[in-house]
Q: What sequence folds into this?
């Protein structure tokens, strides 16, 4: 299986159609060989202690968060709706935010994407990410995915939260202050999650004297108290507004958290100052000769990437060349 793109996903919840997922179910794909390897040289804004922890536990922490993000993030959450015959798909449900009966729902001709518009993808990715870090505070997911590492569970959970926090800061690379718009759904969602953690008092930011760098830390001792409370309440709101189709209230809350004020513009300048080149993907190659399997690795260079593709696809592909010739003028190099 090969992805013809520059941003291969770590996991996928399919199909991306709520009407099918709501009635027939879904499946998840985990692309285990796509997970990036945590490297200290690429980590900015963290203490040496946090860098060491992430390098040690990132592989299993990423696997668990991806599984929770896809399976229980995208894969769960009932949408209350009325069908063409006027029948509701729910009965006697209490809104946990108001304590009263649910009165809002999707009409027969309405979908989540229609109601939440251009922010539907970002809102949904934020919900799935938040599910991931919230459920990491419980033992059962860790028992399933890291049962043999029980002595490391606290560190793994901390790394999951710390990684999401760091990605929230790095998301500022994709914010355009002139247009006040975000360039990508996932990163906007991670920024919103970071703002929730920051608002809850879980984050410390220490700037250098000249404001050209910073150290970000997460108050580990508060994760299971203030952190769990803040993220749990935020996740409840995200889910209630999505389930009931209350886009007016949900999008107002979401847009408020996504604002980038002067303080976070200052942080954006620091993030841009330390921006790293985009990560490239390089895969080893397996081949079989007789009864033996050969493993070929490649240098972590542009030349190594080219060699890996030559090794994987040794035959000349005229059809691929024709497609390239057809579209080359519209492809940004």
A:
């Amino acid at each position: 299986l090969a992805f013809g793109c520059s941003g291969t996903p770590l996991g996928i919840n399919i199909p991306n159609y709520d009407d099918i997922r709501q009635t027939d179910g879904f499946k998840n794909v985990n692309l285990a060989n796509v997970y990036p390897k945590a490297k200290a040289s690429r980590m900015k804004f963290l203490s040496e202690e946090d860098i060491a922890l992430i390098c040690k536990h990132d592989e299993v922490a990423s696997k668990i968060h991806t599984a929770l993000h896809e399976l229980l993030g995208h894969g769960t959450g009932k949408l209350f709706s009325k069908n063409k015959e006027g029948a509701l798909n729910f009965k006697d449900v209490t809104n946990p935010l108001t304590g009263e009966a649910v009165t809002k729902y999707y009409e027969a001709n309405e979908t989540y994407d229609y109601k939440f518009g251009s922010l539907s993808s970002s809102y949904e990715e934020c919900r799935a990410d938040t599910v991931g870090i919230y459920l990491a505070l419980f033992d059962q997911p860790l028992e399933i995915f890291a049962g043999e590492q029980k002595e490391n569970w606290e560190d793994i959970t901390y790394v999951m939260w710390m990684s999401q926090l760091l990605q929230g800061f790095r998301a500022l690379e994709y914010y355009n202050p002139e247009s006040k718009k975000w360039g990508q759904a996932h990163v906007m969602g991670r920024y919103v999650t970071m703002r929730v953690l920051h608002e809850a008092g879980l984050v410390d930011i220490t700037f250098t004297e000249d404001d050209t760098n910073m150290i970000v830390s997460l108050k580990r001792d508060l994760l299971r108290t203030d952190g769990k409370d803040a993220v749990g309440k935020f996740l409840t709101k995200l889910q209630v507004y999505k389930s009931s189709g209350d886009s007016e209230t949900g999008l107002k809350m979401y847009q408020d958290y996504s604002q980038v004020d002067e303080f976070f513009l200052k942080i954006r300048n620091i993030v841009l100052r330390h921006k790293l080149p985009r990560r490239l993907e390089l895969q080893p190659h397996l081949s079989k000769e007789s009864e033996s399997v050969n493993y070929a690795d490649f240098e972590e260079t542009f030349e190594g990437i080219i060699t890996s593709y030559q090794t994987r696809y040794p035959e000349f592909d005229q059809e691929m060349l024709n497609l390239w010739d057809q579209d080359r003028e519209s492809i940004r190099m």
Observations:
- The chain is about 50% helix and 10% strand.
- The chain has a mean pLDDT of 92.
